[in-house]
Design a protein that fits this description.
The protein is mainly alpha-helical. It has one domain: 23S rRNA-intervening sequence (de novo design (two linked rop proteins)). Helix 1 runs antiparallel to helix 2. The two termini are 17 Å apart.
Length: 117
């Protein structure tokens, strides 16, 4: 068992990804500050935040729900990455790398959810 959510590999992966998304979104046009930039950053940071919240819950069903919320944030982030790629704010290769990392996080979350059931 982990002593902190910060020890969980899936949390570490999600936090690292959120930081990288923050950095890459700094290059988006200023007109996107309150649109795509904000939505993408919030979705990406929500992945690790929900993992942390799940960790702090005592009841198994609460934990599972927050892991589901985290998984939803994964797919929301994938959606925003794809949109950013299509409007050419994100290079195709970068989008593929992010997508693969998000898929891994989603798979890791699925394993956690299955283990709690």
């Amino acid at each position: 068992m982990y002593k902190s959510f910060k020890d969980m590999p899936v949390w570490k992966d999600a936090m690292d990804l959120a930081v990288e998304i923050f950095k890459i979104s700094e290059n988006f046009p200023k007109k996107e500050d309150y649109e795509l930039t904000s939505q993408l950053r919030r979705a990406a940071s929500s992945i690790s935040a929900n993992i942390a919240e799940a960790y702090g819950r005592n009841h198994t069903l609460d934990k599972i729900n927050f892991y589901y919320y985290s998984r939803g944030s994964v797919t929301e982030t994938q959606n925003h990455i794809e949109y950013g790629r299509r409007v050419e704010y994100i290079k195709e290769e970068t989008a593929k790398i992010f997508d693969a990392r998000l898929d891994k996080i989603c798979n890791d979350l699925n394993k956690i959810i299955l283990s709690l059931r």
